[in-house]
Amino acid sequence: MLSNFAYPELRLIRHGKPVAAVNSMMNAISYVKWVRQYHLSEISNNSRPNYQHVQDYKSHFVVSSDLKRALHSAHIFTGKSPELIDQTLREMELPRYKLPLYLPTVVWLYSCRIFWLLRFKGHFETYKQSKIRSIRAALILIRLAEKEEKIVVFGHGLINRFIRKVLIKKGWKLTTKSSDYWGVTQLKL
Known about the structure:
The chain is α/β, with parallel strands linked by helices. It is about 35% helix and about 15% strand. α4 packs across α5 (about 155-170). The chain is globular and about 55 Å long.
Protein backbone atom coordinates (compact mmCIF):
# COMPACT_ATOMS: atom_id res chain seq x y z
CA MET A 1 0.00 0.00 0.00
CA LEU A 2 1.53 3.29 -1.17
CA SER A 3 5.05 1.90 -0.99
CA ASN A 4 6.52 4.05 -3.78
CA PHE A 5 5.53 7.43 -2.37
CA ALA A 6 4.13 9.00 0.75
CA TYR A 7 1.32 11.39 -0.21
CA PRO A 8 -0.80 10.77 -3.30
CA GLU A 9 -2.48 13.78 -4.88
CA LEU A 10 -5.78 13.77 -6.73
CA ARG A 11 -7.18 16.68 -8.75
CA LEU A 12 -10.75 16.64 -9.96
CA ILE A 13 -11.24 19.10 -12.83
CA ARG A 14 -14.65 20.06 -14.15
CA HIS A 15 -14.81 20.20 -17.94
CA GLY A 16 -14.76 23.48 -19.86
CA LYS A 17 -17.95 25.18 -21.07
CA PRO A 18 -19.59 23.01 -23.76
CA VAL A 19 -20.72 24.43 -27.08
CA ALA A 20 -24.27 23.26 -26.26
CA ALA A 21 -24.38 25.19 -22.96
CA VAL A 22 -26.86 27.77 -24.22
CA ASN A 23 -29.81 29.23 -22.36
CA SER A 24 -32.76 29.45 -24.73
CA MET A 25 -36.50 29.09 -24.19
CA MET A 26 -37.85 25.57 -24.72
CA ASN A 27 -40.60 23.09 -23.93
CA ALA A 28 -40.10 19.61 -22.44
CA ILE A 29 -39.48 17.94 -25.81
CA SER A 30 -36.87 20.55 -26.76
CA TYR A 31 -35.23 20.13 -23.36
CA VAL A 32 -34.84 16.36 -23.94
CA LYS A 33 -33.19 17.12 -27.30
CA TRP A 34 -30.96 19.72 -25.63
CA VAL A 35 -29.79 17.14 -23.05
CA ARG A 36 -28.82 14.76 -25.88
CA GLN A 37 -26.88 17.53 -27.64
CA TYR A 38 -25.18 18.52 -24.39
CA HIS A 39 -23.86 14.97 -23.98
CA LEU A 40 -22.44 15.06 -27.52
CA SER A 41 -20.99 18.54 -27.20
CA GLU A 42 -17.32 19.48 -27.33
CA ILE A 43 -15.87 22.45 -25.48
CA SER A 44 -16.50 25.94 -26.85
CA ASN A 45 -13.54 27.64 -28.57
CA ASN A 46 -13.80 30.54 -26.12
CA SER A 47 -13.59 28.30 -23.04
CA ARG A 48 -10.00 27.48 -22.16
CA PRO A 49 -8.17 26.67 -18.91
CA ASN A 50 -5.62 28.92 -17.25
CA TYR A 51 -2.59 27.74 -19.20
CA GLN A 52 -0.04 28.97 -16.65
CA HIS A 53 -0.94 25.91 -14.54
CA VAL A 54 -0.98 23.36 -17.36
CA GLN A 55 2.71 22.58 -16.89
CA ASP A 56 1.91 21.47 -13.33
CA TYR A 57 -0.04 18.51 -14.77
CA LYS A 58 2.58 17.08 -17.15
CA SER A 59 3.56 14.35 -14.66
CA HIS A 60 -0.01 13.44 -13.66
CA PHE A 61 -1.79 10.24 -14.64
CA VAL A 62 -4.76 11.48 -16.72
CA VAL A 63 -8.25 10.03 -16.17
CA SER A 64 -11.52 11.09 -17.81
CA SER A 65 -15.22 10.42 -17.92
CA ASP A 66 -16.27 8.93 -21.24
CA LEU A 67 -18.52 11.89 -22.10
CA LYS A 68 -17.28 14.01 -24.99
CA ARG A 69 -17.02 17.28 -23.01
CA ALA A 70 -14.72 15.64 -20.42
CA LEU A 71 -12.58 13.89 -23.05
CA HIS A 72 -12.21 17.10 -25.06
CA SER A 73 -11.31 19.01 -21.87
CA ALA A 74 -8.62 16.46 -21.02
CA HIS A 75 -7.11 16.84 -24.48
CA ILE A 76 -7.27 20.66 -24.39
CA PHE A 77 -5.70 20.75 -20.93
CA THR A 78 -2.98 18.12 -21.29
CA GLY A 79 -2.51 17.85 -25.06
CA LYS A 80 -2.90 14.09 -24.87
CA SER A 81 -5.55 11.41 -24.53
CA PRO A 82 -6.38 10.13 -21.03
CA GLU A 83 -4.58 7.01 -19.82
CA LEU A 84 -7.88 5.81 -18.32
CA ILE A 85 -11.42 6.52 -19.56
CA ASP A 86 -14.19 5.37 -17.23
CA GLN A 87 -17.96 5.75 -17.60
CA THR A 88 -18.33 5.54 -13.81
CA LEU A 89 -17.07 9.16 -13.78
CA ARG A 90 -19.96 10.39 -15.96
CA GLU A 91 -22.02 13.25 -14.66
CA MET A 92 -25.04 12.32 -12.60
CA GLU A 93 -27.67 12.00 -15.27
CA LEU A 94 -29.59 15.13 -16.22
CA PRO A 95 -33.20 14.35 -15.24
CA ARG A 96 -35.95 15.04 -17.75
CA TYR A 97 -39.53 15.49 -16.60
CA LYS A 98 -42.44 16.11 -18.97
CA LEU A 99 -43.76 19.37 -17.61
CA PRO A 100 -46.23 21.41 -19.69
CA LEU A 101 -44.05 24.51 -19.52
CA TYR A 102 -41.97 26.75 -21.78
CA LEU A 103 -38.85 27.74 -19.83
CA PRO A 104 -35.22 28.83 -20.27
CA THR A 105 -32.74 25.93 -20.34
CA VAL A 106 -31.20 26.87 -17.00
CA VAL A 107 -34.65 26.81 -15.33
CA TRP A 108 -35.30 23.35 -16.83
CA LEU A 109 -31.94 22.17 -15.49
CA TYR A 110 -32.46 23.43 -11.95
CA SER A 111 -36.16 22.50 -11.75
CA CYS A 112 -35.57 18.96 -12.98
CA ARG A 113 -32.55 18.57 -10.70
CA ILE A 114 -34.66 19.67 -7.68
CA PHE A 115 -37.36 17.12 -8.55
CA TRP A 116 -34.60 14.52 -8.90
CA LEU A 117 -33.13 15.42 -5.50
CA LEU A 118 -36.64 15.10 -4.04
CA ARG A 119 -36.58 11.52 -5.44
CA PHE A 120 -39.15 11.94 -8.24
CA LYS A 121 -38.64 8.99 -10.58
CA GLY A 122 -38.23 9.03 -14.34
CA HIS A 123 -36.54 7.14 -17.19
CA PHE A 124 -33.02 7.97 -15.99
CA GLU A 125 -30.58 7.17 -13.20
CA THR A 126 -32.11 7.81 -9.77
CA TYR A 127 -30.46 9.87 -7.05
CA LYS A 128 -29.69 6.68 -5.11
CA GLN A 129 -28.14 4.99 -8.15
CA SER A 130 -26.03 8.11 -8.83
CA LYS A 131 -24.82 8.23 -5.24
CA ILE A 132 -23.82 4.55 -5.36
CA ARG A 133 -21.99 5.18 -8.63
CA SER A 134 -20.11 8.12 -7.08
CA ILE A 135 -18.92 5.81 -4.29
CA ARG A 136 -17.72 3.28 -6.90
CA ALA A 137 -15.93 6.09 -8.77
CA ALA A 138 -14.18 7.25 -5.59
CA LEU A 139 -13.07 3.68 -4.83
CA ILE A 140 -11.66 3.34 -8.37
CA LEU A 141 -9.64 6.53 -7.81
CA ILE A 142 -8.45 5.36 -4.39
CA ARG A 143 -7.19 2.09 -5.90
CA LEU A 144 -5.51 4.04 -8.70
CA ALA A 145 -3.81 6.27 -6.11
CA GLU A 146 -2.14 3.16 -4.70
CA LYS A 147 -0.21 2.93 -8.00
CA GLU A 148 -0.01 6.52 -9.26
CA GLU A 149 1.28 9.39 -7.13
CA LYS A 150 -0.39 12.23 -9.05
CA ILE A 151 -3.77 11.85 -10.74
CA VAL A 152 -5.85 14.41 -12.63
CA VAL A 153 -9.48 13.50 -13.36
CA PHE A 154 -11.55 15.31 -15.99
CA GLY A 155 -15.16 15.01 -14.99
CA HIS A 156 -18.27 16.92 -14.14
CA GLY A 157 -19.61 19.27 -11.48
CA LEU A 158 -22.05 17.18 -9.45
CA ILE A 159 -20.28 13.82 -9.65
CA ASN A 160 -17.01 15.53 -8.65
CA ARG A 161 -18.77 16.98 -5.59
CA PHE A 162 -20.06 13.55 -4.53
CA ILE A 163 -16.67 11.89 -5.19
CA ARG A 164 -15.01 14.60 -3.08
CA LYS A 165 -17.35 13.86 -0.15
CA VAL A 166 -16.55 10.13 -0.32
CA LEU A 167 -12.79 10.79 -0.47
CA ILE A 168 -12.96 13.11 2.55
CA LYS A 169 -14.83 10.41 4.51
CA LYS A 170 -12.03 8.01 3.54
CA GLY A 171 -9.38 10.32 5.04
CA TRP A 172 -8.36 12.51 2.09
CA LYS A 173 -7.72 16.18 2.86
CA LEU A 174 -9.29 18.90 0.72
CA THR A 175 -6.73 21.59 -0.21
CA THR A 176 -8.60 23.51 -2.95
CA LYS A 177 -12.14 23.41 -4.30
CA SER A 178 -13.90 24.86 -7.35
CA SER A 179 -16.90 23.64 -9.34
CA ASP A 180 -16.69 26.30 -12.08
CA TYR A 181 -15.87 25.36 -15.65
CA TRP A 182 -12.20 24.28 -15.53
CA GLY A 183 -12.48 24.39 -11.72
CA VAL A 184 -9.91 22.32 -9.82
CA THR A 185 -10.63 20.44 -6.62
CA GLN A 186 -7.44 19.08 -5.06
CA LEU A 187 -7.24 16.39 -2.42
CA LYS A 188 -4.26 14.74 -0.72
CA LEU A 189 -4.01 11.64 1.40
